[in-house]
Design a protein that fits this description.
- By secondary structure, this protein is of the alpha+beta class.
- Helices cover 55% and strands 9% of the residues.
- The protein is built from 23 helices and 14 strands.
- The strands form five sheets. A five-stranded mixed beta sheet has the order 1-3-2-4-5, sandwiched between helices.
- It comes from Thiothrix winogradskyi.
- Keywords: Signal.
- This is DUF255 domain-containing protein.
Length: 587
């Protein structure tokens, strides 16, 4: 009997690891599946894991990443698969892994913790919390030895100085809460002229007039900000704003952020000059860039912008569309050779074999002529250029490229908006939009909306998912004069308000074991537009026959100015929406 007991005790950790592995290996998230064999016995994000932390008194180690991220891939290989790291984490922590695309609200909170601690976030992101889920501190990519040493130092400190750590964690949590509370102060109903000025001042300070975009180091497209500036320029043309938009859009389509063979856009570049891309491609980048480029092409009479927007959406159909017509989340930065950008980059000898020894006469290297690998830009114009581009694409398509096949409800809603913006540009885009629109409309008739289409076990759609869906349905209905879509959008807007608006703010997800139900009046733009701003935008698009919904939107917008003044740059979508609405209401 004693032998049987000892055997059970010895097998228990193995059985526990097997259970965790099964949960991850069978999960619809490829990010989770890739971590099934880690040395760490990960839990998925659930109330059960947080209850386990409280019951055991162990701190929480929560890590957020996503499948297309190169450094997440490296962290898994270098650190989470390390045996010593696994032993430390499994013994001392309750480990939780998060797919940031399935839990965007959780990820946003973790990013805020890191920004408070270090001034920047990013992925992969690993944060330590107390057993009561109060923030202690976090890391981005860290190699195994350093990561393990840091965790062991912390556990030693936790064993001897737990009270002090908990008090500091509570102070950090209080600071985060105070930031939210400050934003809920009710403003007067003055139109946001000073808020607009604050936004333009922030834009002026952050804008890079020489190379376009924002910042003087790495360059993200910041599409919500550029879209807001374009809207403001349409409302009141300004030569300086026009020049900045032209510089930024030219950089967007002309530099290394764009895959000039395929037509898609990478997530960001590592340098100010838009030269060296970070190679993962996200669905949201394509479907947010395309409508802006199409609008700019029409407004500025620039065929190059229009063509780039069209190509981005055609690339979306080629690279992101699944067999069922829905759109996958992302394309990995990691090529089949295990290197960042391996799918997109060419060695000179490969180009010599494909194009000829004089390939430099027809192909330009976007990384710079001194780089040892080539990110191709076809210099030849006309039919010869098209033929060369297709030849390179044909050669490239045989290379392996991993993708994240999750069909996220909200991102597919944003895609539908992009297809609506492209109406009349291409029959293939119209047909794809029609199929996607029908699929999304059918989902609105279900009792429960899934965050991940076709995978109800992955969780129910939350605030942003529903708003992005309503936004896409409304845009498609308006562009194609189909009331069924605008009616569905209107109903979604009502349901979302009733479900997520509490007091004077939005709750971003329901019954969240980390976030609770904290209501905020305004949600900031990230690389995606603010869902609280798009809720207002969509209401004003579809509420002509719905005075109740319109009145709600007016009441919400009246309390926003105070919440928008601070960090106005990150409230671009809200500010442009309010200014546009005020202009339409009072010409």
């Amino acid at each position: 009997m004693r032998l049987l007991t000892l055997l059970c005790l010895c097998l228990l950790p193995l059985l526990s690891h097997a259970a965790h592995n099964t949960v991850l290996r069978d999960h619809p998230s490829p990010y989770f599946r890739s971590h099934a064999d880690d040395s760490i016995h990960w839990n998925t994000f659930s109330a059960t894991a947080f209850e386990q932390a409280k019951a055991s008194g162990k701190p929480i180690l929560i890590s957020s990443g996503y499948s297309s991220c190169y450094w997440c891939h490296k962290m898994k290989q270098d650190t989470f698969s390390d045996k010593a790291v696994g032993e430390t984490v499994n013994a001392g922590f309750i480990p939780i892994i998060v797919d940031r695309e399935l839990e965007p609200e959780v990820d946003a909170y973790l990013q805020t913790i890191m920004e408070q601690q270090r001034g920047f976030g990013g992925w992969p992101l690993t944060v330590m919390l107390t057993p009561d889920a109060l923030p202690i501190g976090g890391f981005n990519y860290t190699k195994a030895d350093e990561f393990n040493a840091t965790l062991q130092r912390f556990l030693n400190e936790w064993a001897t100085n737990k009270t002090s750590i908990q008090e500091k964690a509570q102070a950090k949590a209080n600071t985060l809460t105070q930031q939210r509370d400050a934003a809920t102060t009710v403003a007067d109903t003055t139109m946001p002229v000073d808020v607009l000025q604050a936004f333009l001042q922030h834009v002026s300070g952050a804008g890079d007039e020489e190379y376009g975009g924002f910042g003087d180091q790495e360059k993200f497209p910041n599409l919500p900000q550029l879209s807001a500036l374009f809207t403001l320029h349409q409302l009141k043309p300004d030569k300086d704003l026009y020049a900045f938009l032209q510089t930024s859009l030219a950089a967007l389509i002309g530099g290394g952020l764009r895959d000039h063979l395929g037509g898609g856009f990478f997530r960001y570049t590592d340098d100010r000059r838009w030269t060296h891309p970070h190679y993962e491609q996200m669905l949201y980048t394509q479907v947010l860039a395309a409508p802006l480029l199409i609008r700019a092409g029409v407004e500025f009479k620039q065929p190059a912008y229009l063509q780039a927007g069209r190509e981005a959406l055609l690339h979306t159909l080629t690279a992101f569309r699944r067999d069922d017509g829905l759109l996958r989340a992302g394309l990995s930065a990691v090529g089949g050779d295990g290197t960042a950008g391996g799918y997109y980059l060419w060695k000179p000898e490969q180009l010599s074999a494909t194009v000829g020894k004089d390939w430099q006469n027809s192909v330009h290297n976007l990384l710079g002529e001194e780089a040892d690998k080539v990110l191709p830009f076809v210099k030849v114009q006309g039919d010869a250029g098209k033929a060369l581009r297709e030849k390179l694409l044909s050669e490239r398509r045989v290379r392996p490229l991993s993708s994240d096949d999750k069909a996220l409800l909200g991102w597919n809603g944003l895609a539908l908006n992009a297809f609506a913006a492209a109406k009349g540009l291409d029959p293939e885009l119209q047909q794809a939009g029609e199929k996607l629109a029908a699929q999304l409309l059918a989902l609105t008739k279900q009792d429960t909306l899934p965050r991940l289409i076709g995978e109800p076990a992955a969780g129910e759609a939350q605030f942003a998912d529903r708003v992005y869906l309503a936004y896409g349905l409304a845009a498609w209905g308006k562009a194609n004069e189909q009331s069924a879509f605008t009616d569905a959008a209107r109903q979604l807007l009502h349901d979302t308000y009733q479900r997520y608006y509490q007091g004077k703010g939005w709750v971003q997800s329901e019954a969240n074991p980390l976030l609770g139900e904290i209501a905020v009046p305004v949600i900031a733009d990230s690389q995606l537009p603010s869902p609280s701003a798009l809720w207002l935008v969509t209401v004003w698009q579809v509420a002509d026959q719905d005075p109740v919904l319109r009145k709600i939107a007016e009441e919400i917008s009246a309390i926003l100015p105070n919440a928008l003044r601070d960090n106005a740059f990150f409230h671009a979508t809200h500010i442009a929406a309010l200014v546009q609405h005020a202009t339409q209401e009072k010409p």
